[in-house]
């Protein structure tokens, strides 16, 4: 059973929120406006969800929000460590903030999340980016009010990257981005140690929230008008293994399915080795669970899968996919692929293309391998050149784009229930939303339909989206 942050510890943080609020109210009375905070998120949905908590704490502490770093009094970057380019972007941003801070000495700059949970990164920040006031890791999120208070008052960088306890903090304030759709974390961390991946090192071991805590959060969301729930975890299929009760993820989604007011349930991410028949049955039988499965394969070659420490073969994976397709014929499938794992040869890569052609995913998320210090794969030498890896990456996209387009074409003529997210980026009169399988659907309609479920007849298919019209 995961340790919980105690009520006393949470109360202590609340007292810091009150201290910040008092100061901020005084500031607002003197200046005619509240202090402004800016948050920026890199990486996965878990990070998006963590930023919603950061904004929740900031709002309770009396901050307003801005997107303009020239105006922000507090800037918090919630960072990602999965690939190097996300880290480089943050360092680039910190460089720009240095100049802004030279003009505005009271500005407080904070960097948090996965990236700073790595010691070499925190050392670099301390050495090269002395203008950063606050550094805290994924385990210290709940302590942000205290750390921010100290960063404002102490004239030295406040750092908390302790990863020793990893206790779960319930009831951190939250400011959700969307009224209708919400992420709900069901577990944190990962025990899989895939050889390329930094996540287990920066997010710690798997810890499940209790079913009671998850259900209570979903019920509260529904009471506020939210109806689409996305259950989140690095590997949701091992949900519950660390709990005292014998509830697993299949049981949990059935519990959420029973909650009145929930219309749609999504979840991610599933590890193929842990995808059980029981879970496949639950997806098939629960009317609110979207018929959509994200099942990262990463690579097609058995040699590479072994070196990645994925614990399944290409044949095991394809057999699971066949089982899923048979049990849930209308399932929409997606996956993650890494191109250019160090020991990957051209022949190995062909095996990945073969998986794409056999499975026929609706869409894929593909990444070029990024070396992560401290992971076992970081020690391996590369077989292919950068150029060859990029060629393979482009080939992968080419093969998949053709499949995605074909899969989308099968939707033409169907009526799909779409939850309307907003107006399209390019055209105010076009609405955009997502259907059950999470495909983007654009159609003409009035803004008043935002936040509603609308039946849309699909008229046209593109590679990345569908067009349609409101069904009579
Ligand atoms: N390089 C490239 N992609 C990676 N991923 C994880 N680690 C790396 C890495 N070192 C990808 C995997 C994972 C997704 C979230 O990010 O495909 O499923
Ligand atoms: Fe990383 Fe593998 Fe865990 Fe996914 S399952 S977070 S790829 S270690």
From TrEMBL:
Group of enzyme by EC: transferase
MF annotations from Gene Ontology: 4 iron, 4 sulfur cluster binding; metal ion binding; tRNA-2-methylthio-N(6)-dimethylallyladenosine(37) synthase activity
SMART domains named in the record: Elp3
Catalytic activity: N(6)-dimethylallyladenosine(37) in tRNA + (sulfur carrier)-SH + AH2 + 2 S-adenosyl-L-methionine = 2-methylsulfanyl-N(6)-dimethylallyladenosine(37) in tRNA + (sulfur carrier)-H + 5'-deoxyadenosine + L-methionine + A + S-adenosyl-L-homocysteine + 2 H(+)
Ranges for domain MTTase N-terminal: 35-153
Compartments it resides in: Cytoplasm
GO CC, alphabetical: cytosol
EC number: 2.8.4.3
UniProt keyword annotations, A-Z: 4Fe-4S, Cytoplasm, Iron, Iron-sulfur, Metal-binding, S-adenosyl-L-methionine, Transferase, tRNA processing
Record: residues binding [4Fe-4S] cluster 1: 44, 80, 114
InterPro entries cross-referenced by the UniProt entry: Elp3/MiaA/NifB-like_rSAM (IPR006638), Methylthiotransferase (IPR005839), Methylthiotransferase_CS (IPR020612), Methylthiotransferase_N (IPR013848), Methylthiotransferase_N_sf (IPR038135), MiaB_methiolase (IPR006463), rSAM (IPR007197), rSAM_horseshoe (IPR023404)
Domain TRAM, chain residue ranges per copy: 409-472
Residues the entry annotates as binding [4Fe-4S] cluster 2: 190, 194, 197
Pfam families, A to Z: Radical_SAM, TRAM, UPF0004
Co-factor requirement: [4Fe-4S] cluster
SUPFAM superfamilies according to UniProt: Radical SAM enzymes
NCBIfam families per UniProt: miaB-methiolase, MiaB/RimO family radical SAM methylthiotransferase
Family named by the database record: Belongs to the methylthiotransferase family. MiaB subfamily.
Subunit structure: Monomer.
Protein name from the UniProt record: tRNA-2-methylthio-N(6)-dimethylallyladenosine synthase
Organism this protein belongs to: Hominilimicola fabiformis
């Amino acid at each position: 059973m995961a340790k919980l942050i105690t009520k006393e510890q949470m109360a202590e943080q609340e007292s810091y929120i009150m201290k910040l609020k008092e100061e901020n109210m005084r500031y607002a009375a003197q200046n005619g406006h509240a202090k402004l905070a800016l948050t920026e998120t890199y990486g996965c949905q878990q990070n998006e969800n963590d930023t919603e908590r950061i904004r929740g704490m900031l709002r309770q502490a009396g901050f307003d929000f801005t997107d303009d770093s020239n105006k922000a009094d507090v800037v918090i970057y919630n960072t990602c460590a999965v690939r190097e380019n996300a880290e480089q972007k943050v360092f680039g941003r910190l460089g720009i903030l240095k100049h802004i801070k030279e003009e505005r000495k009271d500005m407080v700059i904070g960097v948090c999340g996965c990236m700073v949970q790595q010691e070499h990164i925190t050392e670099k920040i301390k050495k090269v980016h002395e203008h950063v006031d606050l550094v805290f890791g994924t385990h210290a999120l709940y302590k942000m009010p205290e750390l921010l208070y100290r960063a404002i008052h102490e004239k030295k960088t406040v750092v908390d990257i302790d990863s020793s306890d990893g206790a779960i903090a319930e009831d951190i304030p939250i400011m959700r981005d969307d009224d209708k759709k919400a992420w709900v974390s069901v577990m944190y961390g990962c025990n899989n140690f895939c050889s390329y991946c930094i996540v287990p090192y920066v997010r710690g071991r798997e810890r499940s929230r209790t079913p009671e805590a998850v259900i209570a959060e979903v019920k509260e969301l529904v009471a506020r008008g939210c109806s689409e729930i996305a259950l989140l975890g690095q590997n949701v299929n091992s949900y519950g293994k660390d709990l005292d009760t014998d509830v697993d993820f299949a049981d949990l989604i059935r519990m959420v399915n029973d909650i009145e007011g929930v219309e749609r349930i999504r979840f991610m991410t599933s590890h193929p080795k842990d995808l059980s028949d029981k879970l496949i049955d639950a997806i098939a039988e629960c009317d609110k669970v979207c018929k959509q499965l994200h099942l990262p394969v990463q690579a097609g070659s058995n040699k590479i899968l072994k070196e990645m420490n994925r614990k399944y073969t290409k044949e095991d994976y394809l057999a699971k996919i066949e089982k899923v397709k048979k049990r849930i014929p209308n399932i929409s499938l997606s996956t993650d692929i890494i191109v250019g794992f160090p020991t990957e040869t051209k022949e190995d890569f062909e095996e990945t293309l073969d998986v794409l052609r056999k499975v026929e995913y609706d869409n894929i998320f593909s990444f070029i391998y990024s070396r992560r210090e401290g992971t076992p794969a970081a020690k391996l030498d590369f077989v292919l050149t950068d150029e060859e890896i990029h060629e393979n990456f482009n080939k992968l996209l080419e093969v998949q784009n053709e499949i995605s387009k074909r899969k989308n074409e099968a939707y033409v003529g169907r009526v799909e229930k779409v939850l309307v997210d907003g107006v399209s980026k390019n055209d105010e009169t076009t609405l955009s939303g997502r259907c059950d399988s999470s495909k983007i659907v654009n159609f003409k309609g009035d803004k008043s339909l935002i936040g509603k479920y609308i039946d849309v007849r699909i008229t046209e298919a593109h590679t990345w989206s569908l067009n349609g019209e409101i069904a009579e």
